[in-house]
Design goal:
Elements (H helix, E strand, L loop, with lengths): L2 H8 L2 H10 L6 H22 L6 H26 L9 H7 L4
């Protein structure tokens, strides 16, 4: 699988992310970049789901977090489809720094 394809697969559910991670050997910067971006987006979605247990306020936070994660997912997927390494807005650079061990 070429790096562009692995980058695209990383954005296709958690199973796709795991497949891209396992097949990223030897490590390719293009694939690794998109793995980090998608990991951050997935964790954002999980965090927003975790606060949804709070009545009313939690539901509002969940809706905003889910919408943000969905928009960032689309932006990341489009970047992978183009074959570029554009970080997602606001958090993309942080994702690269926080998950540099991947």
């Amino acid at each position: 699988m070429d790096p562009k394809t692995r980058g695209i697969v990383a954005y296709l559910t958690i199973i796709g992310w795991v497949i891209a991670l396992v097949t990223n050997n030897p490590k390719d910067e293009q694939t690794t970049f998109h793995l980090r971006q998608m990991l951050g987006i997935m964790l954002l979605g999980i965090a927003s789901s975790a606060v949804s247990v709070i009545p009313i306020l939690g539901w509002m936070i969940w809706m905003v977090g889910f919408l943000a994660a969905f928009i960032l997912w689309i932006i990341g997927l489009l970047s992978a489809l183009e074959g570029t390494r554009k970080p997602v807005p606001f958090l993309g650079e942080h994702f690269q720094e926080w998950f540099k061990s991947i």
